[in-house]
Amino acid sequence: MKALEVRKIKKTYSKWRHPVRALDGVSFDVEDGITVGLVGPNGAGKSTLIKIIVGFLKKDEGEINIKTSKPLGYVQEYPTFFDMSMENNLKYIGDLTGTSFDKVERLLKKFGLWDRKSAVPSQLSKGQTKRLAILRSIIHDPDILVMDEPFSGLDPSMAIDIRNMIQQLKDEGKTMLISSHNLLYLTPICDRVIFMSDGRILGEYTPKNTINLRVEYIGNIPDEMKNYIERDGLMVIEVSKEKVPEIIRKLVNEGVEIYQAKIEGLDTIYERLYAGDSHEKQIPNSY
Length: 287
Ligand code: ADP
Hints:
- With 287 residues, this protein is of the alpha/beta class.
- It is 29% helix and 31% strand.
- The strands form three sheets. Strands 5-6-7-3-8-9 form a six-stranded mixed beta sheet, sandwiched between helices. Strands 11-12-10-13 form a four-stranded antiparallel beta sheet.
- β11 and β12 form a beta hairpin.
- The longest helix has 16 residues.
- The C terminus is likely disordered.
- The structure holds adenosine-5'-diphosphate.
- Adenosine-5'-diphosphate (ADP) binds next to β1, β2 and α1.
């Protein structure tokens, strides 16, 4: 079942009376219970899209369909809090959303913040501030959580803490859309990664089910595999890992000479997608 539908979203800002196109027809779905990463360099349009999805910003065109009755949980990139203790910040939101104070206590304990409950936001580390922002977004037990750059500004150990926290929410069955330019932290928790650039979707990648096999070769590729040719001498084939020996065997049997065959990691895909004229480059099976 779909939890979220994003359809042909367009948005242009006006800066000093000059139009700045931030989104140019973005469409995708998020299925129930899965975690989708939104990846792209600065200026790709990720924040604009997220703000439109959560209703912080008006779209010019397109449609957002949210298939849940509960309000979305939203974790901002730069969250702000009231100048009161962490516990009271959460209780305040809890009160507004009809959540018991017991739950605030449970959440603080569960996510390792109970011993900092009396600290005010200015006394918190960046990692604790992000964790507080995530707790605030889940107080009302949303089905869908949307996070904008949850790892930004964090050192590796803090980022891993946040990733573990997100993993826990994923295990509880939350549907999540998470933007980040940090593939290292984002990828392990995502079921799907959507690549954006210049307000458009360049491609999509499913980290767990398939890999991209990059083959450098000389020879004639059989007809049924020709659509994998990236350019003369290079094929990129999206397959399940078990199929790799079979594909190599087939190519060799057809007389193709293989000079290199490697499984492409997400970082290589990222480099390939964003190098040069990125609009022309699509990863196989892109959206
Ligand atoms: P990302 O989150 O991927 O870094 P953004 O959504 O922040 O991308 O920005 C997309 C584009 O829109 C960029 O060119 C950015 O400069 C522009 N932009 C974002 N916010 C505004 C704004 N308030 N006014 C004018 N232009 C903006």
